[in-house]
Design brief:
Strands 2, 4, 5, 6, 9, 10 and 11 form a seven-stranded mixed beta sheet that branches. The protein has no helices and eleven strands. The protein is mostly beta strands. 0% of the residues lie in helices and 50% in strands.
Amino acid sequence: QLQVVESGGGLARPGGSLTLSCAASGVSLDDYAIGWFRQVPGKWREGVTCINKDGDTVTYEGSVKGRFTISRDNAKRTGYLQMNNLKPEDTAQYYCAVRPGKCIDTYALYTVWGQGTQVTVSS
């Protein structure tokens, strides 16, 4: 059974960087799209970015363009989210999710979710 676990969250200063990881167990990620979502209390969970099985990427949240980079290493069964030039508004619980097939900006269509990792950006 496929499971994913996020890691790498924490406290960063504005302008700083963090790298989130999404490690899968149980099944290969080769045929899955990997998405990153985030949520703050009282707001909807929003799609940040996604990477298809062939490496093509999609950015859903315009504010992260040029700052966040998604990647994957299928041999390691791991996806990554490199976050640079962090801003206080990036503060959120970040979730990794996977789905068979292609990326889609509808969180309900992702079949497996991690427990989330908190990212806090503050001086």
